[in-house]
Please model this.
Amino acid sequence: MASKHDWLNAGLEILATEGAPALTIERLTGRLGLSKGSFYHHFGGMGGYRTALLGHFEAECTLRFIDEVERDPAAPPLVRLDRLVALVVDAEEDPRLEIAVRAWALQDPEVRDVQERIDATRMAYLRSLWLAHCGDAEEADRMARLLYAITIGAEQIVPVMSAEELKDLYRLSIRLATRQGGADADQT
Model:
């Protein structure tokens, strides 16, 4: 019998490779080689599954990274930011997953609410790191938006940027911002 986690991971894989319309009980059971009874045992129906899947996406693609970076809360903010960049860029998740969820959010109010919450969480974390670095709330807001815009924009470029190219782009942005503000860029 597959665990709830197995069902959710299968859903993320289907979502990334085939999109939200492919998220059906039949496709999920076929991927896992299981019966519908197992699916209903864990989720009660497709509505419960969708809610759990969105929560799983949020936990795996946002909260997990923040938790990992915050294991060392005493690290300087730019060190934590560099760690966050490395974790996100080197993550094993299919980059198409973020695109699929955003496309789904355009068509489904529940998904849109979750996407807004995820974006707000990510932006707030970036903002908090930059604020701890510079002490200027307005600058922290702008820098959070810039870094997040790089993240979302990089997903849209075809062909996809390599991990090293993306890391270099983040580091350049941070270096330019720290020079502009007169801060010490050697903390990264």
